[in-house]
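so my prof wants the structure for this chain in the tokens format not the other one, which i didnt know existed until like an hour ago. anyway here's the sequence
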Amino acid sequence: MRRSIATGFASIAKRFLHHRHRLEIGNPGAPPSFSLWGFCFWVRAFSDYRDNLRNGLHNLQFYEALDLFTRMVHSRPLPSIVDFTRLLSVIAKMKRYDVVISLFEQMQMLGISPVLYTCNIVMNCLCQSSQPPCLASSFIGKMMKLGFEPDIVTFTSLLNGFCHRNSIDDAIALFDQIVEMGYRPNVVTYTTLIHCLCKNRHVNHALDLFNQMQTNGVRPNVVTYNSLVTGLCDSGRWSDAAWLLRDMMKRKIDPSAITFTTLIDAFVKAGKLLEAKELYKVMISMSIDPNVFTYNSLIKGFCMHGRLSEAMQMFHLMESKGWKANIVTYTTLIHGFCKSKRVDDGVRIFYKMSQRGLLANTITYTALIQGYCLVGKPNVAQKLFNQMGYHGAPPPDIRTYNVLLDGLCCNGHVEKAMMMFEYMRKREMDVSIVTYTIIIQGMCKAGKVEDAFDLFCSLFSKGMKPNVVTYTTMISGFCRRGLIHEADALFKKMIKDGFSPNERVSK
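here's what i got, hopefully its the right format
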């Protein structure tokens, strides 16, 4: 794929290397003929569009922008290409990419000649739109026919288009081609490709490119660092990400709320709440305001460690700063309280969330169901489960089923769990090894070791492989029944299948 892109650009590259001068193009097109709308309309349209341009286009609505374009093309004399380009830029910022492309085509039919900046706006829209990728590439040839030599902005837009479609090989090939043609990538070009590489988990390649850009004298900005920090954190390399934060501060590049929030969230997920809190303090000391994502990450960290009073303090601080809690905030708190067996508090937060007009999602309901199971109320949990999918409540997903199955088994309702399990299989639901392991564990705890082993053996005929937890569960079941020979045989099979015994099995 990568070489095909390079080959595709080869002919254009040759033309570039022999045609490295800018051509200025006039507006040779004769004024088009229109149906007679009336001289008075033309006079009004001319003055109206001038008023719009004078007052600024920042607050323009989409339909107003289209109306303005219509009035501009009917004005005499025609507005300058600068005015048309300003309008196209505004519509592009509205993400109406296909509309910009269409309006540009209308301008050409009317004989309105573009400038390079206009062409770059259209190139960006072609790359971001639903149009086939080949149209963006062929637009370079069209620009040359109009007398324009594409610049680094043009190619960066095309590069962004490949990245937008996750065509990483094409993006890398184009970047190499840009350098071969003698163009000097700027910080936006480098950052675009670095972001794409990080997004696709090619973090080492992104770091190499980061070092290359600095060697070539291109100074990274906060967006470059944020892309790398996010990529490293997503790959579990939070210590490298923390080093990058120190590096950017050393270079006097101010980190943003995104930088800190990404790192705080990574530390929380790694179970390093103390480090997350320290980062939060640094963030505050630098007068960088936390956002709702920052607060949500810290609330999650406190809940994961059972520090619920601190989680609620952070929740109240967040609201006092003017941030509205979202469904993630409330669900995190509900899960935290339910996990700590404080289900009544979780329910109160659930009702508070509903009063504020936020609709609970499947994860919210699953957290409550798990809470009721943990406090020995599987019947209440099942009642709540039965409400899902009706009267505006979200439907359960496979995790909801697994949580309820586990709750029923742990509370001695193995028969109910088996009935639900059979229902899931008849409905041809996506039953995973996790679901089977839950049922096998429930059977073993209920003393039905032989039935559990039959189900275990059936996994292989279904093309499903047991994992180390499944093996451990079954081995423990044999041991509790005193079936040491069977347990030993299964242990040896587990080793043969490539699983390392965990501490529980080794004992």
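also thought this was worth mentioning. The CA atoms of residues 57 and 64 lie 10 Å apart.
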